[in-house]
Amino acid sequence: MQPNNNMTNINTTESMAQKDDVVFRDKSQKKTGMIAGMIVLALLAAGGIGFGVWAYLSGNQKEAELNNRIADYERQLDEIRQSKQEDDTTTAAADDDSTSQIDSGDYIYVGSWDLKIKIPDGLNNVWYSYLIYGDSKSDGGSIAVSGVAGEGFPEFLDPNKNGSGLGALGRILISEYGKDTCPYGNFVFSDDKYNYCYHHPQAVYSVTEDEKTLEVNSVNMIETMLTQKDNYSKI
Fold it and tell me: What residues contact 63, with CB distance under 8 A and at least 6 apart?
């Protein structure tokens, strides 16, 4: 009996078809897996790029905020410096005004009395000394004042020769003598605690007529200075 060649061909053909189907099925699965992997990689890449962009933008934003904060601090420091300069300028101007209005050469300063006395124009080389007498209270006493109505340094101006000066201002306790009262001298003014009294010189010190005239003129200027209440003010 001869073999059936047709059957053999059919089996062979079917077998090859099955093999081809397996090969194509495998190729389809591999292709699908590759595509899926590429998609995953693409998503990861996109995510990485997105994160990088976010980080970059976020970093720029933080840097901008930091720069703005630094600029704000610098502006505040500039304002503080400018304010300090203005304060220093104002203080310096006030000091200049004080110096021009209250010159030590324009006043007699009596620190223990907390008083200053305005020196009149034309009275030069003014000095004063603080005197306290044996019967005076410890917080009383007087000041002897001297000066010259004009220029020069006459002998009556010398404190080593005429230490009593050309006029004096004493103060006494109101509690002891009463307000606006001077047991000796001329009443000038009073404060909460003291009466202030002017004392005229007892005699002329000078010998020559020229110096006598100059001394009298000087005494009169000092008397005007010490007897006018407006010439006195607190230190």
Answer: none
